[in-house]
């Protein structure tokens, strides 16, 4: 047994999956949300059992203890020492990390240095790395970066039209995110097409959302940018806006730059436009009731996605396939159908029956469709486990 633990730590959450490699069989998975609160939510699942508890969880250290205790109580492990390797999702790897990396003190220092670029994410990823290092000092650990897959983008795709020294001195460029998911999904599509060189457009549509153009397994462009705020309209993020709006709103409202940034990250997107929710299911309920602002939020969302798909179709010299993933991409037949309807000019045609499906890997386009369309449930944890195996066996 090669037990690999894939860990994804956020500011108040800890998700994990314990995978037996190389068979890629999940033995246990779970998440702890609202860490730091008296009503934290603990979900834990094995192939045979499932629990959900609402209990106080003080901090990430306690969350890791709970994870260990559950694995032992459910008979999955007798101690964490049985784990052969741990893979940590790290959001920002800058230009330094073009691949995953075996964690040592140097790698940790690099991740600390990159925290300037991802102040909302990297410090939480680091904290989990440090907790696990302390707990399992002899178990090798690997950092898997969300940005690494996009390091193949050409300069013309990743540079902005701003003073060049912003890039040279301060690292201002497009980095792109969701890389592990885009890599997994585009890889699956290539396997399904039997063509490792296929041109694939991946739409990762969740609370955070991005589109990626993949040519022969390499990212050539993506919609997120210097931060995950760019590109599509998302649950609470604005996506692309004219940067001149920021000083204008500061002047009009007296808000500070941090407040405006917070509005763009936390109060925009589906939530900001609909005034109702960041959750696409509630937006869809609103659409069913005829709520105009929900209809508008959805229309802006779909329009942006279609704009990126059309652009990337041209960038790729013609896409062979479009793949949908993430909570919305995998589950919302409405969103997929609305996107396809606006892509008629490209000859995209979905089969309504095949499209009427949730969370299953399958082809959803008709035989006549000029571009094949797929639902591909993402599996970032398996990618993390594969990278752990590859790097610890090197
Ligand atoms: P995150 O970016 O946080 O990982 P997810 O990939 O879990 O996000 O996606 C969350 C989004 O997926 C939410 O907007 C949620 O409403 C949506 N979603 C999940 N299930 C469904 C469903 N059955 N129908 C429509 N949307 C869904």
Description:
With 394 residues, the chain is an alpha/beta fold. It folds into 2 domains: 2-145, Nucleotidyltransferase, domain 5 (2-Layer Sandwich); 195-380, 2-Layer Sandwich (Nucleotidyltransferase, domain 5), CATH 3.30.420.40. Helix content is 39%, strand content 21%. It has helices at 60-73, 105-113, 122-135, 155-158, 164-170, 179-193, 245-253, 257-266, 269-274, 280-289, 292-315, 326-331, 333-342, 352-355, 380-392, and strands at 2-9, 14-21, 25-33, 40-45, 50-55, 83-90, 101-102, 141-145, 199-205, 209-215, 218-222, 321-325, 362-363, 372-375. It has an 8-stranded mixed sheet with strand order 5-4-3-2-1-6-8-7, sandwiched between helices. Strands 11-10-9-12-14-13 form a 6-stranded mixed sheet, sandwiched between helices. The two termini are 18 Å apart. The mean pLDDT is 96. The protein binds adenosine-5'-diphosphate. Adenosine-5'-diphosphate is lined by residues 206-208, 235, 279-281, 326-328, 331-332, 358.
Short structural description:
By secondary structure, the protein is an alpha/beta fold.
How do the helices and strands line up, and which of them pair or pack?
Layout: E1 2-9, E2 14-21, E3 25-33, E4 40-45, E5 50-55, H1 60-73, E6 83-90, E7 101-102, H2 105-113, H3 122-135, E8 141-145, H4 155-158, H5 164-170, H6 179-193, E9 199-205, E10 209-215, E11 218-222, H7 245-253, H8 257-266, H9 269-274, H10 280-289, H11 292-315, E12 321-325, H12 326-331, H13 333-342, H14 352-355, E13 362-363, E14 372-375, H15 380-392
Parallel strand pairs: 1-6, 6-8, 9-12, 12-14
Antiparallel strand pairs: 1-2, 2-3, 3-4, 4-5, 7-8, 9-10, 10-11, 13-14
Helix pairs in contact: 10-11, 11-13
The chain binds adenosine-5'-diphosphate.
């Amino acid at each position: 047994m090669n037990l690999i633990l894939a860990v994804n730590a956020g500011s108040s959450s800890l998700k994990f999956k314990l995978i037996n490699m190389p068979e890629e069989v999940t033995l246990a998975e779970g998440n702890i949300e609202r860490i730091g609160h008296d009503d934290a939510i603990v979900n834990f699942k094995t192939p045979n059992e499932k629990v959900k508890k609402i209990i106080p969880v003080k901090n990430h250290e306690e969350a890791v203890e709970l994870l260990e205790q559950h694995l032992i109580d459910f008979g999955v492990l007798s101690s964490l020492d049985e784990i052969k390797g741990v893979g940590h999702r790290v959001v920002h790897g800058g230009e330094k990390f073009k691949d995953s990396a075996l964690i040592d003190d140097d790698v940790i220092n690099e991740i600390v240095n990159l925290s300037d670029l991802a102040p909302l994410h990297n410090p939480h990823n680091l904290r989990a790395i440090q907790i696990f290092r302390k707990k399992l000092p002899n178990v090798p650990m690997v950092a898997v970066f969300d940005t690494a897959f996009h390091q193949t983008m050409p300069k013309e795709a990743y540079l902005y039209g701003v003073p060049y020294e912003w890039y040279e001195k301060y690292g201002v460029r497009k980095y792109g995110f969701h890389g592990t998911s885009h890599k997994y999904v585009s890889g699956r599509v290539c396997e399904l097409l039997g063509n490792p060189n296929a041109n694939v457009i991946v739409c990762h549509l969740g609370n955070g959302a991005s589109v990626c153009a993949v040519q022969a397994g390499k990212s050539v462009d993506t919609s997120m940018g210097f931060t995950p705020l760019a590109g599509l309209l998302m649950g609470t993020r604005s996506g692309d806006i004219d940067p001149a709006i920021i000083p204008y709103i500061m002047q009009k409202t007296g808000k500070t730059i941090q407040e405006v940034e917070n509005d763009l990250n936390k109060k925009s997107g589906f939530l900001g436009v609909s005034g109702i929710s960041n959750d696409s299911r509630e937006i869809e309920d609103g659409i069913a009731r005829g709520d105009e602002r929900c209809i508008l939020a959805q229309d802006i969302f779909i329009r942006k996605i279609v704009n990126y798909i059309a652009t990337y179709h041209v960038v790729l010299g013609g896409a062979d396939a479009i793949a949908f993933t993430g909570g919305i991409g995998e589950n919302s037949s409405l969103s997929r159908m609305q996107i396809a309807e606006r892509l008629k000019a490209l000859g995209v045609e979905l089969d309504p029956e095949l499209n009427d499906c949730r969370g299953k890997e399958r082809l959803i386009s008709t035989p006549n469709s000029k571009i094949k369309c797929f639902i591909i449930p993402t599996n970032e944890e398996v990618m993390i486990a594969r990278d752990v195996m590859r790097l610890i066996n090197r």
